[in-house]
């Protein structure tokens, strides 16, 4: 490359960085000024009735009367909660509730488990209880409750609010020797998670998970290992009939989240650069047709999680458009860290210190394994400043309970979050 070409490339990169940073600032500003959409939810349509709740209560009683000791107090609490169940409970996240809550969709999943394998119904209820109450109270589990695996760090789109549109992230991808999680690394981590009784694996991270050619094998492997709650996000651009049949034939309680942020082609394609709105809609319709015609009993559920951060996104319009196409729809305003600005300090060059005295619950509920084995506490820190270790050479158990993770928890819990970057620019708590 001539020196002129090098100069021009450097200038283009610098310009891209300036544009990204400017866009991130605009999104952050918009989020600050718009408190509108807090949590618009159309819940999963299930056949949960008072009789079916009673069926779960009876199964818990039976389990306890049979002499179950492990986690018996949790099952008692769940039983007591279900005895006066509120059928309007819609939001399964439940992270900010005072006590314990199960969304109707979660009760529906427990019920499906009960009818297939009652032991799994008990495991599921205990896992949801622990995750929603204990992680919320910053209780430390022996092993991470929800493990996130990045099947690939690359994506076919460049959505404007995403890490993928940050030139620094593209630099990481270009220089990475391993961009797609090798099978042996995946099985090492999945085996350990299953052996430790981990119930939840989410295929998430910084890329589009379905681009890994062995992605369906990964789902099957987790299912066969007894992971109860498997989830992945997809932009739905690469869906094919063959893939859809592979997923539906798993018989797994899989949750597929379609990442869409608008109801009309023009807005959608302005946000999701490289996407084809019509193709995505037709792919999701194809998924629905195959499920309806060939796998009517599939426990797979689909969801749209819309994130709002611009004036031209109409959440109500989006709900009307997407609700008939998926089992569940939810819309929320973006958080500042979802705008891609987590590494940006304020105009005076000092950290934003958005939540200086708050402890991030992420440090008690989640762990991320990137495609090359790097382990990180969250995906908001997509450039891995907080890197904790590498799953190739260390166990997840050792990393989760290791000194780096502990130091991070202690810094947060003792009011020293401001010394951790990018926690000092992050609003999560
Ligand atoms: S599809 Fe997902 S991972 Fe890809 S650029 Fe868009 S938001 Fe990012
Ligand atoms: S506070 Fe820190 S650990 Fe928590 S999500 Fe933000 S950057 Fe990640």
Q: Mind explaining what this structure looks like?
A:
The protein has 429 residues and is of the alpha/beta class. It folds into two domains: 48-135, no CATH class; 144-423, Aldolase class I (TIM Barrel, Alpha-Beta Barrel), CATH 3.20.20.70. It has 15 helices and ten strands. The chain has a ten-stranded mixed beta sheet with strand order 1-7-6-5-4-3-2-8-9-10. β6 (301-308), α12 (315-322) and β7 (328-333) form a beta-alpha-beta unit. α2 crosses α4. The longest helix is centred in the first third of the chain and has 31 residues, at 3-33. The protein is globular. It starts with a helix and ends in a 16-residue tail after the last helix. The mean pLDDT is 88. The structure holds iron/sulfur cluster (SF4) (2 copies). This is Radical SAM core domain-containing protein. GO terms for molecular function: catalytic activity; iron-sulfur cluster binding; metal ion binding. It comes from Candidatus Harrisonbacteria bacterium RIFCSPHIGHO2_12_FULL_48_16. Residues 360-426 form the 4Fe4S-binding SPASM domain. Keywords: 4Fe-4S, Iron, Iron-sulfur, Metal-binding, S-adenosyl-L-methionine.
């Amino acid at each position: 490359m001539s020196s002129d070409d090098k100069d021009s490339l450097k200038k283009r990169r610098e310009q891209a960085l300036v544009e990204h940073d400017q866009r991130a600032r605009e999104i952050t500003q918009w989020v600050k000024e718009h408190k509108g959409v807090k949590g618009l939810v159309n819940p999963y349509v299930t056949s949960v009735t008072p009789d079916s709740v009673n069926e779960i209560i009876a199964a818990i009683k039976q389990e306890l009367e049979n002499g179950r000791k492990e986690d018996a107090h949790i099952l008692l609490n769940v039983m007591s909660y279900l005895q006066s169940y509120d059928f309007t409970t819609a939001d399964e996240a439940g992270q900010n509730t005072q006590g314990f809550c199960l969304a109707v969709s979660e009760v529906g999943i427990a019920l499906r488990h009960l009818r297939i394998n009652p032991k799994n119904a008990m495991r599921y209820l205990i896992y949801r209880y622990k995750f929603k109450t204990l992680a919320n109270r910053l209780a430390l589990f022996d092993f991470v409750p929800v493990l996130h695996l990045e099947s690939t760090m690359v994506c076919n789109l460049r959505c404007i609010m995403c890490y993928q549109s940050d030139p620094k992230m593209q630099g990481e991808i270009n220089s990475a020797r391993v961009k797609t999680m090798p099978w042996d690394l995946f099985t090492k981590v999945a085996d350990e998670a299953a052996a430790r009784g981990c119930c939840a694996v989410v295929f998430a991270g910084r890329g589009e998970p379905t681009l890994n050619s062995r992605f369906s094998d990964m789902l099957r492997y987790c299912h066969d290992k007894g992971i109860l709650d498997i989830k992945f996000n997809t932009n739905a651009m690469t869906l094919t009939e063959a893939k859809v049949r592979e997923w539906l034939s798993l018989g797994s309680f899989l949750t597929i989240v379609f990442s869409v942020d608008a109801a009309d082609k023009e807005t959608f394609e302005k946000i999701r650069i490289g996407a084809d709105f019509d193709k995505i809609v037709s792919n999701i319709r194809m998924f629905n047709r195959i499920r309806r015609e060939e796998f009517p009993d599939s426990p797979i559920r689909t969801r749209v999680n819309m994130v709002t951060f611009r004036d031209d996104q109409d959440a109500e319009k989006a709900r009307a458009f997407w609700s008939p196409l998926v089992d569940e729809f939810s819309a929320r305003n973006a958080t500042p860290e979802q705008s891609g600005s987590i590494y940006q300090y304020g105009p005076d060059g000092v950290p934003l210190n958005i939540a200086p005295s708050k402890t991030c619950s992420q440090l008690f509920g989640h762990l991320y394994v990137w495609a090359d084995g790097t382990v990180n506490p969250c995906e908001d820190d997509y450039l891995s400043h907080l890197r904790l270790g590498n799953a190739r050479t260390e166990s997840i158990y050792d990393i989760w309970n290791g000194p780096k993770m502990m130091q991070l928890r202690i810094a947060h819990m003792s009011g020293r979050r401001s010394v951790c970057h990018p926690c000092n620019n992050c609003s999560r708590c």
